[in-house]
Amino acid sequence: MNTPIVTFVILHWIEYCSVSDTGATSDITAAHTSTMLVDISFSAYLNFVPLFYELIVQASTYDVSSSAAYQQPKKCSHPYAFKVLSSVVSKLLNSNTATFDSELMENNNELVQKLVRDGMECIIYMMSLGYTLAPLQFIIDSIETLDLDIVRFVVSTLLSGVKHPFSTIFLMKMHSLLSRDSVMKALSKKDNFNLLLQFEQEVLKGVSSSASLVDSLFGEAEDEGDGDDGQRAQYQEISTKIQALVSKCKSTFKY
């Protein structure tokens, strides 16, 4: 994984394995129906997934610069790495509805759930590298398909990592995530609700702050078309919605 071409060849093969044999269609399957790419069975695929995760994480932090002066540690260098990671997790999530042998799925269900959890952890790790909005949207889109224990894990890991300042679009997506039914169930756990309260306090820091609304650990740059005043108004609006969500949780769970 020390050269760009090797990195992308490996990611390319992982993506190919992740979109084949599930009925999914993509440019990669269409382009390589009859090529030297090696296909693998689903049971073998499960054994490879931990290695896939390791290789994808390495690729996401790979710096193509050979000079240490230009290296940017903890910076996601390859958004394509997330695209491949999401294809791996999606294949695992879709395994129950795919055309796999039912006995095979029953025997591997516990392993699949563990691999999904590990994949979600990798996704959140990528968010900590600065590549935020696409991973967060993936979590939003898939959260209702996750086992409740995994939802609790995702919520606690995500909320424990977010720090002020936030971009408005990030807060809008967080509100969308936290409003989902499965997440509300996860927030019924006291520890997770306490993390939600901490997140609310981090959000409120932005309301009282006079600094520009730039991104931090879990944020990304926004368009400046509306100017600072417009961004502050949007920030105030979404922070009010988050406060209302916290109040709803308090009344629902009697905290």
Question: Explain this structure to me?
Answer:
The chain is an all-alpha fold. It folds into two domains: 1-131, no CATH class; 148-255, no CATH class. Helices cover 66% and strands 0% of the residues. The chain is built from eleven helices and no strands. It has helices at 4-19, 27-31, 42-60, 79-93, 102-128, 133-142, 148-161, 168-178, 181-186, 190-208, 227-253. Helix 4 packs antiparallel against helix 5 (102-128), helix 4 (79-93) runs parallel beside helix 6 and helix 6 (133-142) packs parallel to helix 8 (168-178). It is globular and about 50 Å long. The relative contact order is 0.09.
Radius of gyration: 20 Å
| Strand fraction | under 5%
Number of domains: 2
**Unreliable stretches covering 5 or more consecutive residues:** 22-38, 64-74, 210-219, 221-225
Structural class: mainly alpha
Helix content: 55-70%
Number of helical regions: 11
Pattern of helices and strands: HHHHHHHHHHH
Please identify the oligomeric state: single chain
Arithmetic mean pLDDT: 78
What is the count of β-strands?
Answer: 0
Terminal CA distance: 49 Å
Shape estimate:
globular
Main sheet overview: none
